[in-house]
Amino acid sequence: MTAPDSSNPDINRDSPPRRSLIGTYPNHWLHSSSPSSFDLTRPAPPEYALPSPKESISLSTTTTPIVLSPSKTALVIIDMQNFFLSTYLGRPADGAGNKAKGRLLDTSIPAARKAGIQIIWLNWGLTDEEIEHMPPSTRRAFGFEAALEGEGTKKSLPAIDAHGVNQAAAEQFVQEKGGVLKEKELTENGKPKRIYKGLGSDIGPVKIEDGKVVDAGRLLMRGTWNAALPPALDAAYKEGQSLEEKPDAWIHKNRMSGLWGAATPCTEYLEQEGIKTLLFAGVNTDQCVAGSLQDAFTKGWDCILIKDACGTTSPDSARECVEFNSARTWGFVTDSIGLEKGVKAMLEAR
């Protein structure tokens, strides 16, 4: 077989740039071939005009550049609450969650504010009715209390988490007939055993700065200290609430995903505001963030993971899996600096 003649101009000439319509108006993207990029702004037919650089954000990703419309975009910050971040509950100050908090405060939130992007704080915030109807699969994820019979005396075990410690602790309790459980078997991933007694259980008093003691409240219930934002994030939220246009929105969720089922307060808000593109940040990357992102993808929203504004206590392989699928299937992956640069370029074009 003869190889193609590399000197043939018909073979070597560049293909003309083309734009491809993906989807059906009004829910569609455009793909440009040269350079390769996706336009997520949903321009109107029949012209499908290129978005103005003064009104759109060109965002670099780990795969293909994309173009966003700030007016149709929201930054969704998930579960950045005291329960998951506070050092007073044993969370490391230099842990992944608190590093993500720093990225949000230093870069992602200021960039979103400058661009006029809606900010949504999507957080656990349970009611007694929701606890009553919570399925066992969700309850297990946050631990539960157990009691075993030992030598005729009922003894309560400390909080049991969802990582296999429950069975090991129970077996040892039976074997030792009331023996003291080892400290290392009562904690998992550095999580204090006393706060893993199940959703809605009482955490009790917590000593914070200057020796002050606060009532941490019931686990992830609305209006409690443990379900509140840490001080710096709370200040950012309150600043956003005072905005005349697009004030920050606080939305409660009652599952790991904030967009599960037929409808949630979050999906209703997004539809009401005409938001099509979601930038995801928060904790944990492979749990509540990934769960919300996958449901958003399934329901038709554009999904972009801001990888350094997310954190998890899980192994690196779990985070890498979410980032891989976010980039290759569910949407795109960027970082805080990429968002900052894209917003800066848009503002400089004005």
TrEMBL record:
Q: Name one Pfam family in it.
A: Isochorismatase
In alphabetical order, the GO MF annotations are: hydrolase activity
Q: Which UniProt keywords apply?
A: Hydrolase
Q: The Isochorismatase-like domain covers which part of the protein?
A: 245-318
Among its keywords, does the record have Plastid?
no
Q: Where is this region: Disordered?
A: 1-56
Query: Where is the sequence biased in composition, kind Polar residues?
Result: 1-10, 30-39
Give the highest taxon in the source lineage: Eukaryota
Describe the family membership recorded for this protein in Swiss-Prot or TrEMBL. Belongs to the isochorismatase family.
The name this protein carries in UniProt is Isochorismatase-like domain-containing protein
Q: Which organism is it from?
A: Imshaugia aleurites
Phylogenetic placement of the source organism: Eukaryota, Fungi, Dikarya, Ascomycota, Pezizomycotina
